[in-house]
Fold these 2 entries.
Entry 1:
Amino acid sequence: MADATTPADQVPVTVLTGYLGAGKTTLLNRILSEHHGKKYAVVINEFGELGVDNDLVVDTDEEVFEMNNGCICCTVRGDLIRIVGGLMKRRDKFDGIIIETTGLANPAPVAQTFFVDDTVKAKTRLDAIVTVVDAKNLPARLADSAEAEEQIAFADVIVLNKTDLVTPEELDAVEAMVRKINKFARIHRSMKGDVPVTELLDQGAFDLARVLVHKPDFLDSDAHEHNDEVLSMSFEAEKPIDAERFNAWIGALLAEQGQNMLRTKGILAYEGEDRRFAFQAVHMIADGDFIGPWKDGEERTSRIVFIGRNLNRPQLRRGFESCQVA
Amino acid sequence: MGETVSADHILETRGRHRALDAYVVAATFSRSGKSCAFALGDGTVAIDGGPEPTNNDSTADWARFPAHEGAILCMATDTTPEGWITGGDDGRFYRIKADGTVNLIAPFGMRWVENVASFTDGTKTHLVACSAGKRVVVYNAKDDELRVADHPSTVTGLVFDAKGKRFAASHYGGASVWFVGSKNGAPRKLEWKGSHTGVAMSPDGDNVVTAMQENALHGWRLSDNQHMRMSGYPTKPRALSFTKNGKWLATSGADSIVLWPFFGGGPMGKPPTELAGGDGVTCNLVACHPQSELVAAGFNDGLVVIADISSARILPITAPGHGAISALAWSPDGSHIAIGAENGFAAVIDLSKR
């Protein structure tokens, strides 16, 4: 559809998640009170509290609904669709949108909203999901709540907060727990959300380029993990990817196992194409687009990352490798 | 469309237009038809007072009044001859007069006022209503609360029927139809799974149609509980407009005007009629003429056309290039049309016989 919007007009959206008491609101207040010369529209939930003055605060009830589009796990935030539509009427008044979720929220509906709705897709781009983690209480949260685990799994950036409340050894252990779930997110250690704003906002993290510079896990074993823990794994392909084969494979994979696949991201070198193709999915909802060209002399290696439950490493590896041109 | 000299010919010869430098959220003529208000994303209202006596000069500014603190989200004509009602993201429900006077009808705190509607028979009944969050409130001529109606989720669309006896509100899971007059009555619940994002009622009051998140429409015929499903849109149908005679439901959301036949057993089992398509550009808004079987349509590239439904003839009003059309309205007598775009372009065009 020949719509007038170009990506440059798209408003960056940062999603701020984190379990109750992890320090989301402290971080949000820090972001807003820092002098960075930018204005943000802030969407807070009904339990949110904002300590600083901000012109554009929207108080919302999280209204999650199921889409009737055949995806059993496709849920979106109806309230965000309305709010983004409303905010676009005064687009010139802010540089970005920050959405704070409730502590108990599963991040999937927020992320999926940015794939599913036409208007939201055209006018905004999901810049990064930032998850605040409480270094002291994370082990307990992971033991008693699936949401805490999913919030880490979905993160592009993780703020490992309240580091002053644990010993250096405990901190390393907690970071290892985070890494086990999501080895691709950038982790910032902080005491009271004291992370520079430049490390949190306008990251372009969801557009993958930065995420995927991480080396894949060649050395990990191909043993099939049989458990419900969230793990992340990545694969590489040296030869160009056949777009048709990739679409057929990833389509079938997500349709079959999308419930277990929390995040899928990839940068692909399609055959005969000088631009990088960025692919991403949340559960079964996938989206992809060409991003900037491959650099001169850069190795055109395709990479894909999976974060989810019950991932079958050898099967995923074989599947991805079979998408290469023969 | 090829026979006109310039696709902007009508605009140039019969229109007054301005660059208002703010997102045009809605355009609405006053009930008398003498003036037209443009509700803007910067919270102000611009009013074109018509061609006489001062507005003949196409460079003269339209009157511009501050109203809401944030963006205006919705506007409807007031029950008075020269006024409008507006809702904003500042949680306010206002009445605005042609001289710029702003009266608060009701405040709603942090809740956005996302929908407004009005009805008057010109004599006894004067109703204005708005929705904020899950609540709809209807007010009488004195702005006293007449009816408070709560819904299971946020209200996304609000309309009165053609007699002002009932109103319908869309929300998650369907729509609710309420009687204005019965203080404590429960609504008639029209249920259909999914997110419903807007609502229309046919002129005879028998059909309620909602727009859905899943690029489709859903309808209920109240007399026999018949469900209607109308799908196939590439994007969300955001505008629903019945022709005056109720025969057609015009909708946006495709790259053409999509018209569903509400006669001869339709729309069930009947394909829609498509007009003014073929450019691959999304139709953002449609508005049916208040009397004739004509429909105006605004597209995402700035093109506005009027289509004659029976002859399928298309008259271009503005050419592509004026910005994505975001507001479209007929004057009450159908002699003028108002147009607004996301980039602030606004125009009033005189279509009367000369």
Entry 2:
Amino acid sequence: MLSPALGALRQTALNAAHKAAGAKMVEFSGWEMPIEYSGIVQEHVAVRTQAGLFDVSHMGEIEVRGPRALALLQQVTSNDVSRLQLWQVQYTALMHPLGSAVDDGLVYRLGEDHYLVCVNAANTDNDFAWIVQHNSAQAEVRNVSAEYAQLALQGPRAEEILAGVTDADLRGLRYYWGCPATCGGVKGLLSRTGYTGEDGFEFYFPPAESERVWNELLEAGRPLGLIPAGLGARNTLRLEAAYPLYGHELNEETTLLEANLGWIVKFDKGDFLGRQALGQQRAQGTRKKLIGFEMMGHGIARDGYPVWLDGRMAGQVTSGSYAPYLKKNLGLAYVPPRSVDVGQEIEIEIRSKKVAARVVTLPFYRRARSETK
Amino acid sequence: MYPQEFLYTKEHEWISVDESIGTLGLTDHAQKELGDIVYVELPKVGDPVTAGEPLGTVESVKAVSEIFSPVTGKVSAINMLLNNSPEMLNADPHGEAWLVRIRLLDRSEIEKLMTADEYEAFLQEEKAH
């Protein structure tokens, strides 16, 4: 129970607001961020049943512009950027020649030759350098992270809440689309995206306006059950939805095929970093596979715990936690390919004891989709 | 806040000693630091415990934390309530959510522990760092 040293950390424009709201602050990727306010369980359940508001201003943004912007993005990412229509959003990976991800993130098409890539805080500087290094096409590339704050409003009541404080046509805004919008009186970029497995929105805007947007949203949402939510709930929510987290399920030693991300690999779009390695692996088979499991015995699997199969150590847990909405102890792990199937029993080594777990279908949680979204 | 009749450790446990039986729990400060507690692993009745050694584990959603025994002896009871309701540790850490009872071998071990006032001063000091 050591308190982390919080000196010399970067702060979002909402730092004082978080502290005033009683947030527990921790170090995360070089930033001082709120891990929880009222408690991870309450915040997690609020996002599943009503709504939660996250400050994710630590995320990085990289702008790519000019006539060669598309060519550059096609070269450094795995998904097919040419398929993006104006204001459409795409989940993708920034690629390594080995077929692994340097990072994962979202690509927004904001104009004919204008893209914004949203990436993980811990990787932003590295991602920027990587894109610049591969910029033989001579596109304009800028690290614009300091120009954007970002809030994520997530949950089944997100649309209802946001509708009261925005001029955007939310009914018409489909999943993975964005639009220019005014929210809480502040102009920015709005998209129907998120990292929780719920319906919701992400809003990018000038950091100086952070408190205004934060307060307007909280005020509008409070009667509908909206509460501020921290990075703790963000992590348990994404785990239930089985979204990968860089540094856990994704790293430079893991290919996209191994991480169940074959769906963002578009072999037919032309050459890109890692295409050859991925093609080879597709033909010859992967070295490991990502599975989901739930604990049957007592105990919570945590990152790094060994996985045992038929009396042999066969892999490692990459993410593990108590899942507050499903009320189960869940985890993700890499094991040898073809070693286990859904329904089969495995063991997780927890503090030198082997505890039974069962392989289950991913995602652990999938929201019931209503209407057209 | 911190009951006067308890003694406290630097690892944020409390112990209340009655004759030769000590009841051990986590302090309110500890449960606040951990956040939502979702799992408690305790020893079995009859297990030996040693002063300064871990005797169990408390897990919140985000963290694993060991429980250290401030005394040497044998476990005489465990709080079964925590099997199914670990969240009681957040709600009532100084009362209903005690962890284990220990039959003490050497009562003098508790003389090194902090009083409630000393513990509160210790918390202030920790906060300042």
